[in-house]
Specification:
With 296 residues, the chain is mainly alpha-helical. The protein has 10 helices and no strands.
Length: 296
């Protein structure tokens, strides 16, 4: 998606992640109904057919790497725009006046990518650390398992809607500032999380957490595309994703160890609050890279 759009990249990614979220809500329901009414083997068969029809076949025969492969221009323009024209600007308030393409080696020498990766790791630790332990925590706070799982589902729905909202806003404002705002809001949700003692507070937290979760996914991808261009975005995004997954792996372990030692999640969640604030500062410091600022 990032290779096909520049001016409209924000809304394009927003639509992509919204559809992904819808699938994440609908498919588990279909699978569960199938398991309850038919058999789990049939459910797996349905998943395989869905993946084949909507995943494998389009990727093999329809999807193309970039518009230039088909003789087209980015954003569906009738012709490629000049490098300094307004046609190549993603938005008047965007991070780039025109697209610059960086290799991974060039980007990693610039402090911006290092700061982004550190921020991604910090927020990844805190996000997954809460996500995996949210239902047990809510049950510990007095909610029934059904209400706790319901709160998680509400969070997924809010995340899907927020993908659209953040993507549309990102076409008009700097992704760096929007992502920092998103991280700051995420930090605020931890303060609410630690005080949950009613279903209403749990569902309020789920909505706020979902709104920030969608923004992290959309804005994080968009920021890398804005900063480093389309040509090597796959490699750079792959490195970022690997760092993020490392955070996803560490966060739940930290929460589990903290609970085993103290029989409480308070210490772990407080540390996640601090980590998210650190991530906010790091992303604010990650100013858009320039060729003049990068080493030879």
């Amino acid at each position: 998606i990032s290779k096909w759009f520049l001016r409209h990249r924000g809304r394009a990614l927003a639509i992509l992640f919204f559809v992904t979220s819808v699938g994440g809500v609908v498919l588990p329901l279909v699978v569960q109904v199938t398991i309850d009414t038919v058999h789990w083997r049939v459910a797996w068969l349905i998943l395989a057919v869905v993946m084949l029809i909507f995943g494998v076949l389009p990727a093999a025969f329809i999807v193309r790497r970039q518009p230039e492969d088909l003789g087209l221009a980015i954003d569906g323009d009738s012709r490629p725009a000049a490098p300094n024209s307004v046609e190549t600007a993603r938005s008047a308030a965007g991070a780039m006046a025109h697209e610059e393409n960086w290799t991974l080696m060039d980007a990693i020498r610039h402090p911006a990518l290092v700061l982004i990766l550190l921020s991604t790791f910090a927020v990844g630790v805190s996000s997954a650390g809460v996500g995996l332990h949210l239902v047990p925590f809510l049950v510990q706070q007095g909610l029934t398992p059904t209400l706790a799982v319901g709160a998680v589902s509400v969070g997924f729905l809010a995340s899907g809607i927020s993908n659209l909202l953040w993507g549309l806003v990102a076409d008009r404002y700097s992704t760096r500032y929007l992502l920092a705002l998103n991280y700051a809001l995420r930090a605020g949700t931890f303060l609410l999380l630690l005080r949950i003692d009613t279903p209403a507070m749990a569902y309020l937290y789920a909505v706020l957490q979902g709104l920030t979760e969608g923004g992290i996914r959309t804005l994080g991808t968009l920021m890398l595309s804005d900063y480093y261009g389309r040509r090597r975005i796959g490699t750079i995004f792959g490195v970022s994703r690997a760092v993020q997954v490392g955070g996803f792996a560490l966060g739940p372990l930290i929460a589990a160890l903290a609970f085993d030692m103290t029989l409480s999640y308070s210490g772990a969640f407080t540390s996640f609050f601090v980590l998210t604030l650190v991530g906010t500062g790091l992303i604010l410091a990650a100013k858009p890279p320039t060729r003049n600022a990068s080493p030879n």
